[in-house]
Amino acid sequence: MMQLQEISDRFEIQQLMVDYSTAIDSRRFDDLERLFTPDAYIDYRASGGTHGNFPEVKAWLADILPRFPAYAHLLGNFDLKIDGDAATGRTMCFNPMVLSEEPKQVMYCGIWYVDEFIRTADGWRITRRVEEKAFDQII
């Protein structure tokens, strides 16, 4: 049976993931500052993106994502392993992205976020994120 601390940790990490999706989908890239550690490593190459440290990738997101007319993130299958003040996770993300309005084209992306987390004085933060591709299809 899970202890109260583990239940709380799981909810907090899941909320961290939702907050990430909300920040990205709302184009509020500065909100990412409270979700990642300053030295976090991020690798979005599986979906055609970049990789590097958090400040570089945040700047890249702020430059690239506004070029898409619309996109959304839907998360599920949170597979979390918590070990004291550290955790790992693998979370499914369904991420449709509108590529063009006329003609209407949408790319349907399925990816896994493979993450490492750390508990800080300000709560859980992502220290490492690597995408794994599940599928993509342009329609």
From TrEMBL:
Entry's Gene3D superfamilies? 3.10.450.50
Residue ranges of domain SnoaL-like in the record: 5-129
Q: Which domain of life is it from?
A: Bacteria
Name of a matching Pfam family: SnoaL_4
Protein name according to UniProt: Nuclear transport factor 2 family protein
